[in-house]
Design a protein that fits this description.
single chain, alpha/beta, two-stranded antiparallel sheet, about 40% helix
């Protein structure tokens, strides 16, 4: 069992059956799984993407300045973080949202030592605002925050995908899932577990990564407890 984990959620995982936006029922389902992890005695940090609301790369493709588009994407992660916070707090789980972008009226600024103090008080930390600077993904934010808070593993929760495959399982029926991988393998094979910057940070700091399907009930708890599930990168 891990003592502290960093859960990486995609923004798309919050939209539920909708094409975009935030689905309250889906958010509550995810929050219930997170609460089960906290109740088991494991400390949890969360980094959530913003792709369900806005994606910086898409803005660039539509002709926007990339930096401006990325800042919009960071604000989308703040909205998602507040939705997750609301769901967890409604279940009696104490939380704090900490943003790399200063938005003092709705969340705290991210300060590492303060974050560690929140963990000591048993709170779930939801890290918003990405890295706070453009041109970096929320995968990189997860790698950075996971390393900074001393997480035992980063849990990459996927929406309907069981783990890491040699090719897209949604397109190829003969796609093979890996039980275990090394950092060098995911970098050399470009397996898209996370972006290469994030993978390099995890490799340098020897951070375990667990890639699993979050849509199956209890999988977040299983991954947090170190059970054999999905794909382990080490």
């Amino acid at each position: 069992m891990y003592k502290r984990v960093l859960l990486k959620l995609s923004g798309e995982s919050l939209k539920g059956p909708n094409s975009a936006g935030i689905d309250p029922t889906t958010v509550k389902t995810i929050a219930k799984q997170v609460k089960d992890v906290v109740d088991s005695g494991i400390e949890v940090g969360i980094v959530c993407g913003g792709g369900n609301l806005f994606r910086g790369q898409l803005g660039e493709e539509l002709g926007m300045d990339r930096a401006q588009a990325d800042y919009m994407g960071m604000l989308a992660t703040v909205m998602n973080a507040l939705a997750i916070q609301d769901a967890l707090e409604s279940m009696g789980t104490s939380t704090r949202v900490m943003s790399a972008l200063p938005i003092s009226d709705v969340c705290e600024a991210y300060i590492r030592r303060r974050a560690l103090r929140h963990f000591e008080k048993g709170r779930v930390l939801i890290f918003a605002g990405g890295t706070g600077i453009p041109y970096f993904t929320t995968d990189t934010a997860a790698a950075l925050r996971g390393t900074e808070i001393g997480a035992d593993a980063i849990l990459m929760a996927k929406n309907g995908v069981q783990g890491v495959y040699d090719k897209d399982p949604r397109k190829f029926k003969d796609a093979k899932m890996f039980d275990e991988l090394t950092y060098d393998q995911i970098l050399e094979k470009n397996l898209r577990v996370m972006d290469q910057t994030a993978a390099s940070i995890c490799k340098e700091n020897k951070m375990k990564i667990v890639v699993f399907n979050m849509n199956e009930e209890g999988n977040i708890l299983k991954a947090s407890q170190g059970e054999k599930i999905g794909t382990l990168v080490k």
